[in-house]
Amino acid sequence: MQAFLTLTRRELASFFVSMTGYVIIAVAVFQMGLSFVILLNNLQGESTPMPVTEVFYVTAFFWLILLLSAPVITMRLFALEKYSGTFETLMTAPVGDLQVVLAKFFAAMIFYMLMWLPLLGCILIVQRFTGGATALDPGTIASTYFGIFLIGCLYMSLGCFASAMTRSQMIAAMVGFAIGITFFLLSFLSEQLSASKSWWSQALNYIAMREHMRDFSRGIIDTRYVVFYLSLTVLFLFLTYRVVESRRWK
Amino acid sequence: MTDSLMIEVANLTKRYAGNTAVSDLSFSVRRGEIVGLLGPNGAGKSTTMRILSCFLPATSGTARIAGFDVFTQANEVRRRIGYMPENNPLHQEMRVREYLKFRARLKGLGLRRSRERVDIVMQQCDLTEVQKKIIGHLSKGYRQRVGLADALVHEPELIILDEPTIGLDPNQIRSVRQLIKDLGRTHTVLISTHILPEVEMTCNRVLIMRRGKVLLSETSENLQKTMNDGQIITEILAPIEALRTCWEEMAEIKHFDIAPTDGDFFRCALTPSEGADVRPQIFSAITQRGWTLRELSRSRQSLEDIYMRVTRAEHEEESL
Question: Comparing C-alpha atoms, which of B178, B232, B227, B223 is closest to residue B205?
């Protein structure tokens, strides 16, 4: 446990001692700001039945932030250590492979959630100036953040996996981005095919992340989605663990 | 029986896709020894060390450290070794103290204990004045010491250093060697190098490796004896005939060679019979005859010669 906490702390700190962490947060905040402008614009127009969180979500900035930041957050986790050789000092310290994988994943998750905090500021401003609790329900905000958290788990874990496979941060980012955007694009495919009743269009419906996130931003927490994200996260973390362990079979 | 043995390696083999890095390697190291692994690049030194430090598994064979198997009891082994890999990788963005503290905590030391140990190793490795500096900004010598401090921080029984003096300037090399020597008083040390004088100066025992095998395992004392088998060289101003009779009369000299050199001096290369040191007799013979002497020395066979001999013999064997 001590090793796990020590590692998590170091990983988290390394986002902030280098510029990476600040750059990622700055870019994310910039995009949140843009989406906020659009959101205000939308709120000025006709009244809409959507909750404010969903109004934010449908601006598409959400996916831009997620898809761009996830690979950048995770790319250095393993690749940099392998590249600089510190992976050897790390793996010859009395720590288990699983501890290492989980610590890196947790650090990435914490950073990812910190990155999303400014959004809360935007929402609070809206609440302040619309002058009423009616526009914003804490439950919807919580479920939006829960959705952000779940999708983050999936993207951080697949980023870990991409990073563990290579010693080049660039390749790690590209592979992470490719897998991430594939998952995202599958939801468009399912929308296209929603009319057909074939088994695979139904299967695609379960992967439709756009649909999932819309529900979360409306305040609906569907346990099927929760199971979907958590099981995929576990799968990717398991794969990462196997990749890290694989040096022992070579 | 395992009490006195720190490292026991038996029939260790490591194959990477296609080539064999270590083949059927066996050796053992007693507690308190400083052992040097010597060999050309690609001899399997680093691979051996990586297996011993539980980073890589062996293809076959066993290795035990302090009685624990490196594969099945990896965590026990890792707790007992301090390992500094080749090129000494460090987290460049961290500060010296912060890094050592992180490593100490990672290796399971308590909060107070890690603070104490970090202070001690920083003093030991002369890092106290740079403790607040960022590792990436330090000179190579300091970085090497940070790596050493990391290897020492959890008080390991065995210290494994892979080429600890590579890329340092002569002063830094000297201070690192001194540090290793000091460590040898309290720890078992295994170092690898391809720099011969380093082994000669710091180690009690030398293992010469080539192509994944140990060719020679010898204590430094025995090596010194072997090395002292060389010739005696002397330069004397005397008539050549008189010199010849003089050497012929001396019973301990098996063979001699006389060659003229500059300024009417003659350079004599004398091969004494096994193990004898005839320098005093030679000196008294010269003074009796009233000759002028300008050099009298015993050519020491260097470790390099032995190394060349051993590795060449292996090479010839292969080409047969």
Answer: B223
Least CA distance to A82: which residue of chain B? B89
Q: Say whether residue B195 is in contact with chain A using an 8 A CB cutoff.
A: no
Among A105-109, A244-248, B188-192, B265-269, top mean pLDDT goes to: A105-109
Residue A86: list chain B partners with CB under 8 A. Answer: 89-91
**Over the stretch B283-300, which tens digit does the pLDDT of each residue have?**
888 888 888 888 888 776
Interval B104-121: pLDDT, tens = 999 888 889 999 999 999
Choose from A80, A91, A92 for mutation: most chain B CBs within 10 A.
Answer: A92
Distance from the Cα of A110 to chain B's closest Cα (Å) equals: 19
CATH number at residue B97: 3.40.50.300
pLDDT tens-digit profile of B252-263? 777 788 888 877
Q: Structural domain tally of chain A? A: 1
- CA-nearest residue of chain B to A91? B55
B216 and B269 co-located in one domain: no
Kindly state whether residues B196 and B287 are assigned to the same domain: no
Q: Percentage of chain B with pLDDT > 70? A: 90
In A, which residues are within 8 Å of B81 by CB distance?
92
Q: Do B89 and B30 fall within a single domain?
A: yes
In this predicted model, what pLDDT tens digit does every residue of A72-94 receive, in sequence order? 999 999 999 999 889 989 888 88
Same domain, B121 and B202: yes
Is residue B242 in some structural domain? yes
Report the SS3 class of residue B65.
strand
The residue among B226, B242, B262 that closes a domain is B226
* B192 in any annotated domain: yes
Residue ranges making up the domain that contains B241: 229-298
Asked if A91 and B55 come within 8 Å (Cβ–Cβ), the reply is yes
Judging contacts by C-beta atoms under 8 Å, the chain A residues touching residue B85 are 85, 88-89, 92
Residue B320 lies in a domain: no
Minimum Cα–Cα distance from A100: chain B residue: B106
Domain membership of residue A85 as a residue range: 2-248
Q: Which residues of B touch A100 (CB under 8 A)?
A: none
Q: Distance between CA A183 and CA A162 in Å, rounded?
A: 14
Give the number of domains in chain B.
2
Contact B85 A89 (CB under 8 A): yes
Query: Which of chain B's residues have a Cβ under 8 Å away from the Cβ of A97?
Result: none
pLDDT in tens, A96-120: 889 999 999 999 999 999 999 988 8
Give the chain B residue nearest A246 (alpha carbons). Answer: B56
CATH of the domain at B264: 3.30.70.3100
Q: Pick B300 or A31 by higher pLDDT.
A: A31
Which of B174, B205, B226 is the last residue before a domain boundary?
Answer: B226
In a domain, B311, yes or no: no
